[in-house]
Protein 1
Amino acid sequence: MIGRLNHVAIAVPDLEKASATYRDVLGATISAPQAEPDHGVTVVFIELPNTKIELLEPLGENSPIQAFLDRSPSGGIHHVCYEVDDILAARDRLKEQGARVLGSGEPKIGAHGKPVLFLHPKDFNGTLVELEQA
């Protein structure tokens, strides 16, 4: 059901500083910052030959990323994102097997302009999983 790894997301307290580390120390190509108000984050993507790294910074006081950073002030891996061919079919199959879809269960549009859903980390070995329609 899952396809390729789309990205690994890292929550950071300072997007500009984290971007500079990837750009200046590791020599990575980084996208411009993109505000995602529906998700409460500002993101940049680091392009790699085989996938992407997404850096996430809280956007607004109610950002879900802020609670993560309160527990881990220096940041850390927040989630992994896998591609699926049909997000609604994937959601329905996962729910039939007992997996919990976060939020309303309806896909939202993610940073790549495609439908996304998040799956409860307790159902996936402590890892928050994002599904993105390919």
Protein 2
Amino acid sequence: MANPRIRTSALLLFSIFLLLACQVSNTPASTAAPSSPSLISIGTPTQTETSTPIATLTETATPTLEPAPLASRVLILSIDGLRPDAISLAPMPNLLALMENSAYTLAAQTIHPSSTLPSHSSMLTGVCPSKHGVDWNDYIPSNGYANGTDLFDLSHAAGLQTVMHVGKEKLQQITEPASLDIFTYVNDRDLVVTQRLLDDFPQDFGVMFVHFPLVDGMGHVYGWLSPEQLSVAFRADEALGKLLAELDVRGIRDETLIIITADHGGHDTTHGSSLPEDMTIPWIASGAGIQPKALTTQVHTMDTAATTAFALGLPIPPEWDGVPVYEAFSLPVIRQSAQCQ
């Protein structure tokens, strides 16, 4: 008589053999040899698991190349002709208080020639004068506009509201009208320029450029750092205070990146040279995404456009000479921009 344990093992092996044979014979041809990889799971697979290729999952998991926005909007204020040393000499208490919670440098550099229209063109196009081609400093409509893709082109194409509110008419030659949702020219004092803006404040701007003209104007008449110029720098600071208060009232200051800078400095009653007094400008960033600190990065005026685009999560055109001031966001400095030649 056969050993019962041996007989039981034989029966078990025979049953397994029959089960495997049935599974092989019942497997459809389309799934027995799949043409593309599919997910494998234990138990009954779901429809998603059997129909999702591995390649699709890999593409979905790949992070986007565009950075996430750090700010909902950006306000750029240019105080025309403001030398960094005028901030404490005036004094400018609102700006000094803002600097305590800002990433800032008082040694940023503008372009040569250090004149209003070429310098603002580099500030807002992100490129050197050799690329944007603005070599004039008066309002000459027949000369057209700065070359290349500027900050307003980029922002408007992304569906952001673009605003330019300025105290010098010639600044409209920086960008084509089609790239501006709102353009306002106010030929008056900085406080009046500001009040006109507050009277009809844009409801949902993405990028707004504001320009105060009078510090430059008084410098040309009375000289840079003269008592007369410092007095209007103090008034420009008062206008800044009103602008910041408006952001507070609207509850949007915390989500707004604020950049305060200048197009050039000056010496005697002029500017435009390569002298440090003409070339050195303040660069102060406050608000959304910013980590307060004194910057060690060498900032150039073209970096304003690049920093704005970076904060808004917009792609930076490869031809731009400016780079984001990464240090202001406490990010590793990938590279720094170079002074225009």
Protein 3
Amino acid sequence: MSRSKAPAGRLRVVLALGTAETLIWASTYYLPAILAVPMARDLGVPNAWLFGAVTAALLVMGAAGPLIGREIDRRGGRIVLAWGNVVVAGGLILLAVSQGMVSLAAAWLVLGVGMAMSLYDAAFAALAGIYGRAARGPITGITLFGGFASTIGWPISAAVEAAYGWRSVCVLWAVVNLTICLPLNMLLPKPQAGAAAAAQASTATEDVSTDRHTRRAIWLLALMFSVAWFVGGAMATHLPRLLQEMGATTTAAIAAGALIGPAQVAARLVEFGLFRNLHPLISGRIAVAMHPIGGLVLVLVGGPAAAAFAVLHGAGNGLLTIVRGTLPLALFGSTAYGLRQGLLGAPARLTQATSPFLFGLVLDTSPMLAIALSSLLMLIALACLLMLRARGTSKAL
């Protein structure tokens, strides 16, 4: 009986959490791409100030990550994710009624807390608490849904903004968080109560802070994710311009950029199918190697290789999102998973937040230098993964 119920229960969790994650990403992280210009114009603030508020939200998200992760370790993800929807909705309402830079910044700071409570790191920790080491499949499943967040979110936001204005978009997404995402997150299984949960919480800090091999692995993973997220943030902001600087036409650069989303989803499908029995270290090494391979092709061929570069970068980025959740689980297990995810995510969010500005300075100097920088960073990420060993083995995979 239990065997027959397990797959259905897991499928229900993946469908519910995957749908919620898609809508939460659409209503937070992907919102500025559509609303930044009309929002700045209406409020009379420079675009740079608005994106500065978004950057502050990402920094708050990273800073709050360890605390949120520890709470998920202690209480389970069900309640934390649901409260995250409430905080996100509150931030969106504050955004909808903002009248200037101060209220705008306050709204984005609230959204930063809400994102820390409800986006992938929190969702991965919730799944690890439910399934333990068997969470790899569900983690991959919800990222398959999340890959369509911009595909779904951008057209909805753009259509509502064109018809009713950007404030209505914020109100709409606030309602979606409260009426769709929150009930879906409440479908997650309740956390374990009593001694087992208390024991996990009491050992979480010790497991993270006192084991020398664990600390070394965390440092390597933190560096790997930091440089990888820097490159990801830089490409999300500057990819069309970079491809044009390398010789692609405007049309070709935009078309190439449109391939990133499908490439991410395709790579996640490969992870779900062909790679599901491989150790996440192997998936991670393949993922971080794709960008420098694409960079080499772009340098050698120039503009005509724009699509190839975009596909390789997008596929690697899609795999890395899964590796972000599955590799710490495979190396350290599910105990203190949420806290570790928070610790790993804090520096990565910092580099991701600063990457558009810093990479833009390099791109202003030379597109070849920009490609060399991003490729070098991903090679550093590869070196970090090559230095890591699978748990329970004496030699690297």
Protein 4
Amino acid sequence: MNLLLIGGVLILILLIIGVVVTIASERSLVDERLGQLGEDEVSKETSDAAARSLVTEWINRRVASSSMGDRVARELARADLKFKVAEYYALVFISTLGLGLIAFILQPNGGLISFLIGAVVGFFVPRFYVKRQQVARIRKFDDQLGDMLNLMVNGLRAGYSTMQAMEAVSRELPSPISDEFRRVVQEMQIGIPMEKALENLFRRIPSDDLDFVITAINVQREVGGNLSEILDTISFTIRERVRIKGEIRVMTANVRASGTILSLIPLGLGLALWFISPEYIGTFFAPNPFLGQPLCGIIAIAVIVGLILAGYFVMMKIADIEV
């Protein structure tokens, strides 16, 4: 009961801190990323930062300056999640502790093992969500890339400059492609070179199709040529790639679904049995009458997990067809 009381108080305090920090930091994600790229240029627009919690800002600076913090910030930017690195770590901590306590409440007879099961699941839930958001956003961006190229080609043929064509894309097309090109335009407006702004775009959206477009724009700026004709040709190629990828995704959906379901069934069944009857699963780790240690059960669990992971990755590799 003491453990539950302490955990509940900690969760309540962390939730209150998260709500206060979120309300106090209502700057848009665009201003936040521009602030990272050009602190001097946008300092006039970020005067409200003084109202934030000094402790939160200090923690965020220390965490974000590390290599892991930089990687997490990049992952959050790719998923378009309005979290700071410190806020994301706080979310992971809350999720880990919260699900660990929930698992302990559901099966207190399991003791520390129940808590660890919930904690491990809670630790990976935020990362799984971020990865899922990244995949969905990049896929949606790729689907809109053909329309973006057509709009840029029409703008260039009408006499627009490259920057004006990108600005038209940011106004006319839906999210997420409009949001990303709005960032590119804003970065160029504060003095960042186009090559660097496009490099930042590719870092946020690691798409092979986008790489073709950025390479074509950079090459045309170096050696000259008719950019509208180049982008028109690339547009046809990208549209065909998107069409073929969609057909492959449909044909391999059965393999991917089968691999995921077959891999999750043993894990889900084992967890269900643990929370329903831990004594039944506990016999699996009972001491061996010959060895005196639960060595056989541990070896069997390791073999089972290894075979499941191997089967999952083999099936995903079969479904992963390069275009």
